[in-house]
Every structure is written in structure tokens, then in C-alpha cells.
Amino acid sequence: LKKEGEVERRYRAIFEQSPFGILIIDTNGKIVEFNETARRELGYSREEFAKLGLFDINPQGAEEIQDRIKEVINKGRHEFEVKHKTKDREIRDVRVNARVLNLFGRNVIQAVWQDITERKRTEEALQQYREQLEKLVIEHSQDSKA
């Protein structure tokens, strides 16, 4: 029995200390379990976060969220990008890796996410610079021909 408790503590430590947000979600979108990173990244206290469901943190419509849940259940796993809404109503881009798990005879979804907001902003800025440079090159080549 002591050994079993040690294994549980070890897995709990891995879950809580993960650098990625982790949610365990039932098939209706209710958050059953969450780790410290998920709570902290979205800005809620543990008590506040414990009362939330997917519909509270995802600004997408309920239909889109339900479609994603169905897709994860049907495929067994699914990776996708989605938006999350923080307590302060800031919208964050996240990359989610979701899979179906069977815990104690019940299917749930484990969703592990990484915040990619800064990466997306950098990519968008680079794309804008690229478009500006291309425009300048076209203008310069047209001026040279005149």
C-alpha cells in the first residue's frame, strides 16, 4: 500500500509540475481535473477554476467545442489550435494535444496545451514585414523601368 501511495505522489508531481496546461475533461466538456500551469496561465484561483468548464475558457461557440470533443472521441486523439480566454478576458492562442483516456472505467479527455500566443504574434509580424518588403521591391523595380 505504501508503494501505491508513492506512485500516486510521483504522478501527481509530474502532473502539477508540467510546463504545459493539462485538463482532464468529461465527454460533456466539464473540467474534472486541472494542473497548476492551466490555472495560472488563465489567471484563476484554484477555487474559481474548479467551477469552470470548457465553455467558460473557450470563446468559440458551444457547437464548435462539442464538434472538437466528438472528433477527439471518434479518433481517440486529436491535435489542434484553439483560443482560450483568461479571467481578464485576454484571448490566448494555444496548441492542444487531446486524447481519450479510460480512468476508472470512464472515458475522459486529457488535453495538454502549450500557449503559442507570442509565437503567433511573431509569425504575423514577420508576414507583414515580408509583404511590405515585397511591395517595396515591386515599387522599386517599377521605378527603375520608368
Structure, described:
This protein has six helices and five strands. By secondary structure, the chain is an alpha+beta fold. A hairpin with a 2-residue loop joins strand 4 (91-103) and strand 5 (106-115). It is elongated and about 85 Å long. The mean pLDDT is 91.
Give, in spatial order, the strands making up the sheet with the most strands: 2-1-5-4-3
Total number of β-strand segments?
5
Overall structural class, as computed from helix and strand content, comes to alpha+beta
Q: What is the overall shape?
A: elongated
| Beta-strand proportion | 25-35%
Work out the oligomeric state of the chains in this entry. single chain
- Computed over alpha carbons, the radius of gyration is 21 Å
Estimate percent helicity.
Answer: 40-55%
**Mean pLDDT, nearest integer?**
91
Sketch the major β-sheet.
5 strands, antiparallel
Q: How far apart, in Å, are the first and last alpha carbons?
A: 86 Å
Low-confidence stretches: none
SSE order, as H and E? Answer: HEEHHHHEEEH
Number of helices: 6
